[in-house]
Amino acid sequence: MSTVSSWSTTVLPVVETMATLAFAVSGILESARKRLDAVGVCTVAFLCAFGGGTLRDLLLDHRPFFWVQHIELVWAVLGLSALSMALLRDTHREPTERFILIPDALSLGLFTASGTQLALLAHLPSLVAVLLGIVTAVFGGLMRDLVCNEIPSVLKDHRPYAVCAFAGAWVLVLLWHVGAEPWWSLWISASTTAGLRGVALWKQWSLPSWRN
């Protein structure tokens, strides 16, 4: 048990940090496409980076929130927003939707794994852990799209998104119950989710949609 506790205080924060920064980049690029000002860029980056984790912490009754406990992440997101905005203005290049999908898929995998793992550490049922992993992964992007006046891509993009998170979360649950190493389970789950999302985009897989 001490090994798991030690792992949850060392490896898991690193994964959360990577996911947070990746989602922040996704928010920055989307706000750049919408030509938001500096306040808008920072706001969208913050919501995208911390929205899912904050909702997860609320549901798990974790205090303080992850970004409050690691305030340096807030400074990192603000600094990344300012730097990215300056670079994008200098290059006069508009971020494409395809480029935004790269950090989005990475953060989807990492946040799915970390959210599911935290729920399992709290001894919640497997299905609840999976759902919390999905919430952690998709809620930030949902808030990003709403603030940018878009129908959330998780609801309108028929290419599998939340479904990939669902599959990756169950991989982690399975590995958890067979006693696999927590850090190994985490990376396999994150890779599964991000990999499925990447293949779905590459192969143009799509979920059933309304008939015209």
| Tally of discrete structural domains | 1
**Segments where pLDDT lies below 50 for 5+ residues?**
none
Mean pLDDT: 85
* Count of helical stretches: 9
Approximate shape: globular
Order of helices and strands, N to C? HHHHHHHHH
Radius of gyration, in Å, reads 17 Å
**Major β-sheet annotation:** none
Q: Estimate percent helicity.
A: over 70%
Strands, total number: 0
Supply the helix-strand structural class.
Answer: mainly alpha
Instruction: Compute the separation of the termini in Å.
Output: 55 Å
Describe the overall structure:
The protein is mainly α. The protein has one domain. Helices cover 80% and strands 0% of the residues. The chain has 9 helices and no strands. Helix 1 (2-33) packs antiparallel against helix 2 (38-60) and helix 5 (97-121) runs antiparallel to helix 6 (126-147). The protein is globular, with a radius of gyration of 17 Å. The model has no long low-confidence stretch (mean pLDDT 85).
